[in-house]
Amino acid sequence: MEDFLIFSGKSHPELAKSVCQELETKLSQTKIQDxxxxxxxxxxxxxxxxKTVFLFQTSLPESAVLHKDIWDLLQMVNxxxxxxxxxxxxxxxxxxxxxxxxxxYPGMGIGGELLAKLLEKSGINGFIGVxxxxxxxxxxxxxxxxxxxxxxxxxxxxxERDLKNALILPxxxxxxxxxxxxxxxxxxxxxxxxKERISDSEVKxxxxxxxxxxxxxxxxxxxxxxGGTMKALAKEIESRVNSLTFAVTHGLxxxxxxxxxxxxxxxxxxxxxxxxPIKEEAKKALPLRILSVDRLLADxxxxxxxx
Length: 307
Known about the structure:
The protein has helices spanning 13-23, 63-82, 111-122, 136-139, 151-158, 176-186, 228-237, 257-262, 280-285, 294-306, and strands at 4-8, 30-34, 40-44, 52-56, 87-91, 126-130, 144-148, 166-169, 192-197, 203-209, 216-224, 243-251, 267-273, 288-291. A five-stranded parallel sheet has the order 1-4-5-6-7, sandwiched between helices. A five-stranded parallel sheet has the order 8-11-12-13-14, with helices on both faces. Strands 2-3 form a two-stranded antiparallel sheet. The protein is 33% helix and 26% strand. The termini are close together. It is α/β, with parallel strands linked by helices.
């Protein structure tokens, strides 16, 4: 493997440390200095010249924090380029701007495309992410994109159960293909749902295909934000099923998601990964199982360094 270093911003250093443990290396230190003027500067406390550097910074659901973290990441990339790094890979396990993949209204821009171009202009040679909400996010980059999937992690966790009565259910048609892949890995049927979005937190959901009666239903998606989609679907089918499980990659638990999920009586478990730090409120109040993507990321980093 070629010489490499791993640095982390402030958003999720715990995951970066865990990846370093998988790779049997140390997390190199980054200093981010914020000034009273609003300006900030980033320093690496280790020489990056001639080395491949991986810069960790995930998205967080709080807007002000997210945009400061994005700026810090851009400065980290710029500093690595200025200091002569051989290769610079941004690692953003959860990409909130992958939702901004098209112009929905006249006069708006595309946030996902802007993020990609800013990172490229700053100096990245590659980008690692997990389960983008939209496949368009890959196309916004001209550098190498390593789009990882947590489906195998979910399948491994779910295989520990008795699945003879299970059904995989995507919350909308946009999630159907991934749900079908998971269902095939588990050897269980998959249903279909039609969803109508009313607002950011309110949706209507109707099951179009799938025998739900008495089933252990696993609702599979890429993320939980406010929980509106999951709550609406659970409300629609709860009286017919034996149990409900939510299996999602990114657990944001924004707004009133935690309290609304507590009202679902047949909710057996919520399986999420650690692409972002899971809120303590959710850990205490909900039947959570948290899977780590550390090995998934470490394997990709190892492959990149082997060339």
